[in-house]
Amino acid sequence: MTSSDDGGYVHDPAAFEDGERQEGGEADTDGDDWVDEPIHPAATDREFDWRGWTLVGVIVFAFVVSPLTILLWPPATDYLFALIVLPLAPAVLLALTAVWATTRP
Questions:
Q1: pLDDT score for 3
Q2: Residues near 51 by Cβ (< 8 Å), separated by ≥ 6?
Q3: pLDDT digit string (tens) for 61-84?
Q4: What is the reported pLDDT for 33?
Q5: To pair with 78 at 20 to 30 A between CA atoms, which of 18, 60, 67, 88?
């Protein structure tokens, strides 16, 4: 089946050579240089620095301290707070810290 039969795009690997579109295809004008020439991971500065240790601390808080707090929460106090708010706060903190720690300026 060819692209003329279905009226849509059909990927043809033979139309590409060394990442370049052949046969008069449109050029990528988005300005995405990282797509054309990606940086090798070994060339970037990706060390386990203070951001990583901050993330490890939040993981320990979310998976050890928070469940122990929920478990040891006195039954005489508001149980809804213990079952909804106490798990929600570490989850939000973990999500925000994970995004912050993995993005680089």
A1: 46
A2: 100, 101
A3: 999 998 888 888 777 777 777 788
A4: 65
A5: 60
Which residue, chain included where needed, has tokens 């990442």? 19
User: Distance of CA 23 to CAs 1, 8, 28, 81, Å?
Assistant: 19, 18, 15, 64
Positive or negative torsion for Cα 71, 74, 80, 81: negative
Listing DSSP states for 36-88 in one string gives HSPPPGGGS-----HHHHHHHHHHHIIIIIHHHHHHTS-TTS-HHIIIIIHHH
DSSP state of 98: H
Closest CA to 54 of 20, 93, 82: 93
Q: How far apart are CA 28 and CA 34, in angstroms?
A: 12
- Looking up tokens 């060390």, which residue turns up? 47
What are the boundaries of each domain within the chain?
10-42, 45-102
